[in-house]
Amino acid sequence: MSSLDLTLLYLLAAVLGVAACRVFKLPPMLGYLAVGVVIGPNALALAQNSEGIRHLAEFGVVFLMFVIGLEFNLPKLKSMRRHVFGLGSMQVILTMACVTVGSMFLASMAPSIWQMRWQTALALSGALAMSSTAIVIKLMVDRLELDSEHGKRVVGVLLFQDLAVVPLLVLIPALGSAPEQMAMSLLLAGIKAALLLTLLLTGGQRVMHAWLTLVARRQSQELFVLNILLTTLGLAWLTEMAGLSLALGAFVAGMLISETEFKHQVETDIKPFHDVLLGLFFITIGMMLDWRIVWDRWEFVLLLVTVPVAFKFLLIAALTRLSGASEGVSLRTGLYLAQAGEFGFVLLTLGNQNQLIPADWFNPVLASMVLSMLATPFIVMNANRWVMKWANSDWLQQSLQMTQMAQQSISTEQHVIICGYGRCGQNLARLLKAQNIPYMALDLDPDRVNGALAQGDHVAFGDAARLQSLMAVGLARASAVVVTYLDNASSLRVVALTREHAPKVPVVVRTKDDRDLEKFQAAGATEVVPESVEGSLMLATHALALMGVPMKRVIRMVQAQRQQRYELLREQTFSDESENASAR
C-alpha cells in the first residue's frame, strides 16, 4: 500500500469514526480507537501499524503534552491547590502504591498464575492511575458540570494526573535498565530532568516572552505559527537528546508560553495540529489491540476491566469523602474518574518499548483500558440516578436545594427566569431591577451564587438544563425565560424543556453568531440574539456618532439595519423550512 493510499485510508477511517461519535454524542477519541481496531492488522488488516505511522503518531503525544503545559499556569494551580495537590496527589500515590503492592503480593502467592516483576508492577500502576481528561472534560462541558462541586474536584484530580505524567516519563525508561544500573539510571535521569527544567523555567520564560514579542511584531501569522512549531519540537528534541522523552520537552514549552500574553493565540493556532495528530495516535493505539487474544482470554480481560475500575471508584470516593465533600459529591467524583486515560496509553506504550511490559500482559491491559473508556459515557450519563439510589443524603440534599429554590420563587409571578448569571445575566438583572420587574436566576458556580446572594440578588444554585431546576424557580408562572449561555447545546435543552412544559412562556436566547439560528427557531425560541450581529451594530453606532452624525439619525439607521437583518434571517429560515416541507 502506497503512502497516499495509507493516508487516504486513515483520513476516511477517522472521518467515519468521528462522525459516528458525533451522532451518538460521544467523544471523538472513542471513534479513533474503534476505527484503529477495525482497520488494524488484527481485524480487517487494511493497514499495518508501520514504523513511520508510529513516529508520526508520537507527535500527537507531543502536542497533547504541549497543550497540557499551556494549562499549567501558576495562578490556576494556586487557586485549585487543595483539589490538585491534596486530592489529586493522594489519588495517584495511593493508586500506584496499592496496585504495585497488590501485584507483588499476588505474584508471591500464585507465581504460576501472576508472574510479574516489581518494575512491571510499578510501570502498570502509573498507567492505571491515569483517567481520561479528554473524555471526562468533554462530558462535563456538555452537562454544564465543570463548575459543580464534583466537577471542581474531578478537574483538580485530572490536572494532577497530567502533571504526574512528567516524572513518570522519566521513571519508566530508567526502570527498563539492567538491575545493576537501575539506581544510577534513576539518579542520572532525575539530575538531568532537574537541571533541564531549572534552566528552562528560571531564565526560559523571559527568553520565550522576548522572542515571541519579536516574532509578533513582524505581524505575520505564518511566521508566528512556524515559531510555535519550532519551539515545541525543538524543546522536545532537546529533552530527547538529554536522554529524556519528547513529551517532557513539549510540556516545558507549553509551560513557558503559558505565562505570556500569547497563550490564547497559541492555543488557537496549535489546535488543528494537536487534534489531527492526537487522533492519529489513538488510531495507532487501536491498531495495537489484538482482539483474538482478548477473545481467548476474555475472563482475564474482564477481570482487568472490573477490578481497576471498581478499585479507583472506591478509592477516589473515599478520598473525596475524607477531604470534606458530601456523600453524593464523593460518589460522583469516583464514578467520573474510574476509567483509564489517554496518558495511560502513553505510559503503557513506553513501558512496552522499554521491555517492562511483556506481550502476554500488553494486549489484555490495553483491551481493558479501551473498554473502560468506552464505558465512561454510559457511567457518567447514569451517575446521577445511581448516586440518588446509593446516597440517601444526596437525595435529601437535592430535595432541600429544590425546596429552597421553590421557597425563593413561590411568591413570585410574572417574573423573568435568567439561565446563567455571568456578566450578561447580571447586566440583565440590573436592568430588570431598575424597572421593578421580578426575576430569578440560575447558575452552577457556587461562589458566584453566594456572592450574588450576599448582594441581595435573586439567584439560586441549579442547572437550568434540568427540568427540576426550572420548575423549582417557577417556570409555569414566569413571564419569560432568557438563556445567556454561549453553549448552544445547553441552550437548546433549555428551550426544549420550556416549550414542552410551559409552551406559552417566551424564550429569548443569546448566541455567539447566527449559524444555529434555524435550530433555535425550530426548537421554539421566541427571539435569538446573535452577539456578532449586535456587536457590529453597536460598533456602527459609536463610529457614526464620533463622525458627527446626529444621535437620532444614528438610532433610526441602526434600528432599520437591525430590523432588516433579523427579517432576512427569518425569511431565510422560513424559506429553508418551506423547501424541506415540499421535499418531504
Overview of the structural elements:
The chain has 584 residues and is mostly helical. It has two domains: 3-390, Na+/H+ antiporter like fold (Up-down Bundle); 397-583, NAD(P)-binding Rossmann-like Domain (Rossmann fold), CATH 3.40.50.720. 74% of the residues lie in helices and 4% in strands. It contains 26 helices and six strands. It has helices at 3-23, 28-39, 51-71, 74-79, 81-109, 118-128, 133-142, 149-175, 179-202, 204-216, 221-241, 246-258, 263-288, 291-296, 298-322, 327-336, 342-353, 359-390, 392-409, 423-434, 446-454, 467-472, 488-501, 517-523, 531-546, 551-583, and strands at 416-419, 439-443, 459-461, 480-483, 507-511, 527-530. It has a six-stranded parallel beta sheet with strand order 3-2-1-4-5-6, with helices on both faces. Strand 5 (507-511), helix 24 (517-523) and strand 6 form a beta-alpha-beta unit. Helix 3 (51-71) runs parallel beside helix 12 and helix 25 packs antiparallel against helix 26. It is globular, with a radius of gyration of 27 Å. Mean pLDDT is 79; it is low at 573-584.
List keywords for this structure.
584 residues, mainly alpha, Rossmann fold, 2 domains, six-stranded parallel sheet, 6 strands, disordered C terminus
